[in-house]
Amino acid sequence: MELILKSNLGLCVRLSADDAKGLLKVSQLCELLEISYTGVRARIFRGETVEQAIHHFLDQKGGADA
């Protein structure tokens, strides 16, 4: 599973929860978004994609449309 984030400034971030390096990037993204990395990681290990897990917490926070 892989999530690719792109911005209009040319920044491209690939996130994967398949290895330690990918989980570290997910952790850093969660910190930037101010969402629970522990919660995101738990949802990933229950079978959700990285994107679904992150969107779950963004929706709870009210920032899905930001």
Total helix count? 3
The portion of residues assigned to helices is 40-55%
The count of DSSP E runs of length 2 or more, i.e. the number of strands, is: 2
Q: How much β-strand is present in the residues?
A: 15-25%
Estimated radius of gyration: 11 Å
Q: Could you describe the largest sheet, including whether it forms a barrel?
A: 2 strands, antiparallel
Précis, in short:
With 66 residues, this protein is α+β, with helices and mostly antiparallel strands. Helices cover 53% and strands 15% of the residues.
Give structural notes:
With 66 residues, this protein is an alpha+beta fold. It contains 3 helices and 2 strands; from the N terminus they run ββααα. The chain has helices spanning 20-33, 37-45, 50-61, and strands at 2-6, 12-16. The chain has a two-stranded antiparallel ribbon. A hairpin with a 5-residue loop joins strand 1 and strand 2. The relative contact order is 0.17. The model has no long low-confidence stretch (mean pLDDT 76).
